[in-house]
């Protein structure tokens, strides 16, 4: 039985990763986090330190660890400054979002995307510089949809992607749907399996993995819910 540390265990993806790991016979250790209220102070600035601190702790105190999986985002590959170019563009591990810290100063809404870029780059720099005994795999999903496993106290605690579904059901977009921020999606269960296989499969070591189910539009979501 393998022991696996999962951070952010109350999150949409992490909570389901824990379920699958347990079902596959692994022992799971979790951490907890606080709700973020100030994106600049609590999201951007700690992103790099939070990621590298976990990796450094594994490197310094856990010599038995062999694999690490980091939840990144497709925004770390594409970024909101570039258009989705369709099937003519093949994205690879060499593609990175061009977002800078200066972009977040002029547009605070880019803070989450920028934090993913900085955190993932810092993780790979750590692997290159420190050369730990464990390998790293990063999972870069686009918009994640699917069933919610954790108990929600109210609809206010719905994760970002499922919030749109809740808004449609509650009639908040009767005057018109907003365009999809990122017209690519993936089932949360596929993202979960990617994380689990990243720590189970040796061939996944040192790779950036982009998991996706394809293109979508908010109008398609509306049609399904309707």
TrEMBL record:
InterPro entries for the chain: Epimerase_deHydtase, NAD(P)-bd_dom_sf, NAD(P)_dehydrat-like
GO MF entries: oxidoreductase activity, acting on the CH-OH group of donors, NAD or NADP as acceptor
Keywords on record: Oxidoreductase
Residues covered by the NAD-dependent epimerase/dehydratase domain: 40-208
Keyword Mitochondrion set for record: no
Keyword Oxidoreductase: yes
Similarity comment text for this entry: Belongs to the NAD(P)-dependent epimerase/dehydratase family. Dihydroflavonol-4-reductase subfamily.
Name the UniProt record assigns to this protein: NAD-dependent epimerase/dehydratase domain-containing protein
């Amino acid at each position: 039985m393998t022991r696996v540390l999962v951070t952010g265990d109350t999150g949409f993806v992490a909570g389901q990763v824990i379920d699958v790991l347990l079902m596959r016979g692994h022992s799971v250790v979790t951490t907890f986090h606080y709700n973020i209220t100030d994106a600049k102070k609590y999201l951007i600035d700690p992103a790099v330190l939070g990621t590298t601190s976990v990796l450094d702790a594994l490197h310094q105190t856990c010599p038995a660890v062999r694999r690490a999986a980091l939840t990144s985002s497709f925004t770390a590959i594409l970024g909101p400054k570039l258009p989705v170019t369709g099937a003519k563009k093949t994205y690879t591990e060499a593609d990175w979002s061009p977002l800078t810290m200066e972009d977040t100063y002029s547009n605070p809404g880019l803070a989450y995307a920028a934090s993913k870029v900085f955190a993932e780059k810092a993780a790979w720099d750590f692997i290159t510089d420190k050369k730990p005994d464990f390998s790293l795999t990063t999972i870069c999903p686009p918009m994640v949809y699917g069933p919610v496993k954790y108990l929600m106290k109210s609809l206010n605690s719905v994760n970002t992607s499922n919030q749109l579904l809740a808004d449609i059901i509650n009639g908040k977009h009767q005057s018109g749907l907003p365009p999809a921020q990122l017209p690519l999606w993936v089932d949360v269960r596929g993202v979960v399996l990617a994380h689990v296989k990243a720590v189970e499969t040796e061939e996944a070591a040192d790779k950036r993995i982009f998991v996706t189910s394809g293109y979508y539009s908010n109008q398609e979501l509306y049609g399904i819910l309707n």
